[in-house]
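Minimal example, chain plus adenosine monophosphate.
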Amino acid sequence: MIAKIHEFLEGMKDAGHTTPKKCYLCQPDQNTDTLIKLNNKLFKPYLKEEQILAAIEKMAVEIAEDYKDETPLFVGVLNGAFMFVADFLKAYQHPCQVSFVRLSSYQGLTSTGIVETLLDVQEDMEGKSVIILEDVVDTGRTLKQLVHLFSQTNVKEFKIAALFYKSEIYNGEYAIDYVGLEIPDNFIVGYGLDYNEMGRNLREVYQLNQADMINLVLFGKPGAGKGTQAGFLKEKYNLKHISTGDVFRYNIKNGTELGKLAKSYIDKGDLVPDEVTIDMLKDEVEKNPEASGFIFDGFPRTAAQAEALDNFLESKDMKVNATIALEADDEVLIARLLERGKSSGRSDDQDESKIRNRFDEYNEKTAPLKAYYEKQGKFHSVNGIGDIAEITERLGKVIDALD
Ligand code: AMP
């Protein structure tokens, strides 16, 4: 029998599988430190199979203490929880029933994610104690939808059990009744969880390898060419471009609460308050967990934002690699902005007094960040006057020289 299994594993290797294949009957403890590649991204080992199973065992014991005298209905959240549900049920050896629900989260350029139900729970749940089995609870958006779904039923009781819980980013709206493992806010894959549908079959949990990430802050006054240059750099270095100005304008265009709030500030050329902008920025980063790095364009603009960005990135095992300023004279910039205002439709580009107010805001609140980043040895300056391609080349030289 063992020989047959080995023959099968060799066949898997020959078929070009990227995951290291090993025989768990012969080498149960052999956890390699090898990076694995899924859809061109590298992931490093994070949680061993034994750790995961021990956490599930602990949950099963806790839940049994509360429910062993009745027949609870466990509801697994597809697709991610399928492996968790299977192992959980093997650990929970008391009368129970099982069903599944499937939700899909839509990710767009919005400040709040929308989660839609694809499949309702089929069972008759009247009078039953329902325990949701979630693979991972992060921001809490999915949970909100689940609570909404079950609040419309006549269940006796409704509880939530999460195998992995990202307490740092959970909005705290509902209590999580049973937790397997509390984990930091890193992108994880394996044990049912996927990266673009790959990796669900891994027995262990891996996390995104952040070592190769480049995160850049593009610094400079309005009109310095940050947006234009970010457009080229994101292609060249495969980075996600986040322009806080663009996100605000998108929200204004779509009439969201965030847009309504930001509009009054933007129209006058004032900065939007820090709390709002920082939360929005974090949300944009969260929406792109698999990015190879970010270009922050128009953020940070105040000392509080710079500190919040450093703390936030550090909590995700990331950092700002460089802040690059595009330098240009005010008079050149005013001429550029007034020219752009003719076609962009941006009211803050069409009126010189608003432009000058934006410069005042910059001089007072943003310019001091130069010293903040110089202190960290991260500040670089590039001449922002000249041919667009020439400026991209200047920026590229700075980026290529980074460690
Ligand atoms: P921009 O497109 O970067 O020139 O931004 C346009 C406007 O959006 C600014 O004048 C501010 O009102 C607002 N805004 C953009 N980014 C920020 C930020 N980081 N902090 C505060 N307000 C911002």
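The longest strand covers residues 97-106. The pocket of adenosine monophosphate is lined by residues 222, 244-245, 248, 265-266, 269-272, 277, 298-299, 301, 305, 348, 358 (CB under 6 Å).
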